[in-house]
Amino acid sequence: YVDSSQKIDYVFKVVLIGDSAVGKSQILARFARDEFSLDSKATIGVEFQTRTLSIEHKSVKAQIWDTAGQERYRAVTSAYYRGAVGAMLVYDITKRQTFDHIPRWLEELRGHADKNIVIILLGNKNDLEDQRAVPADDAKEFAQKEGLFFLETSALQSKNVEDAFMTVLTGIFNIVN
Ligand code: GDP
Ligand code: MG
């Protein structure tokens, strides 16, 4: 628990990227407000949400940026990536194409972001096991090869969402400390 009047020791900008409809906005809603919506509209308006948490007795404000419907290839602007120290690369485990596009997103991210950026690959919607189109081992292998963290998540069931953010934020924290 972090008192809102407490001083902030760090602000970490983290960007969410990946194809449309993979669940980026719901992952963020789960993390920032512990909310989920089954009929979430394409993201409009708000650029980022924040949540302040404590890591090793320091208060860290996570500033999480969500694409505002810019998920077409190369439509995400460089301003979006500017200053990002963490990234969550999201695909949908039930849609093979969203995983096949991950190398593109990674290339774009690496072209724009800081070289020390901490990246996690997230296979979201893992509550839909019966519709799985991407074996977890394929993603794990890709993540290992590229030096990314990897987790499967469910924003719906609130599974691994907290862990995913803590992995990235702690990874960043360990770099700056
Ligand atoms: P975005 O375009 O990547 O921001 O995707 P959204 O967050 O808007 O989610 C797209 C759709 O997938 C919405 O209907 C969500 O309710 C649904 N969705 C998001 N996360 C999950 C999840 O973990 N499990 C399931 N079953 N559906 C999800
Ligand atoms: Mg969205």
Brief description of this entry?
The protein is α/β, with parallel strands linked by helices.
What does the model show?
- This protein is α/β, with parallel strands linked by helices.
- It has helices at residues 24-33, 78-81, 96-100, 102-112, 136-146, 161-176, and strands at 10-17, 48-55, 58-65, 86-92, 118-124, 149-152.
- Strands 2-3-1-4-5-6 form a six-stranded mixed sheet, sandwiched between helices.
- The two termini are 22 Å apart.
- The structure holds guanosine-5'-diphosphate (GDP) and magnesium ion.
- Residues 24-25, 43, 66 line the site of magnesium ion.
- Magnesium ion binds at residues 24-25, 43, 66.
Task: Kindly list the characteristics that best describe this protein.
177 residues, alpha/beta, 6-stranded mixed beta sheet, 6 strands, 32% helix, binds guanosine-5'-diphosphate, binds magnesium ion, membrane, GTPase activity, lipoprotein, GTP binding, GTP-BINDING protein 3
List the helices and strands and how they pair.
Elements: E1 10-17, H1 24-33, E2 48-55, E3 58-65, H2 78-81, E4 86-92, H3 96-100, H4 102-112, E5 118-124, H5 136-146, E6 149-152, H6 161-176
Parallel strand pairs: 1-3, 1-4, 4-5, 5-6
Antiparallel strand pairs: 2-3
This protein binds guanosine-5'-diphosphate and magnesium ion.
Magnesium ion (MG) binds next to helix 1.
- Round the Cα radius of gyration to an integer and report it: 15 Å
N to C succession of SSEs? EHEEHEHHEHEH
Instruction: Report how far apart the termini are.
Output: 22 Å
Backbone shape: globular
Overall mean pLDDT stands at: 91
Share of helix, binned = 25-40%
Given the structure, what is the number of helices?
6
**Biggest sheet, spatial arrangement of strands:** 2-3-1-4-5-6
| DSSP E strands, number | 6
In the predicted model, the low-confidence regions spanning at least 5 consecutive residues are none
Describe the main β-sheet briefly: 6 strands, mixed
- Could you say which structural class the secondary elements and strand pairing correspond to? alpha/beta
DSSP strand content: 15-25%
Any ligands, ions or cofactors bound here, and which?
guanosine-5'-diphosphate, magnesium ion
Main location: membrane
Subcellular location: Endomembrane system
Keywords: GTP-binding, Lipoprotein, Membrane, Nucleotide-binding, Prenylation
GO molecular function: GTP binding; GTPase activity
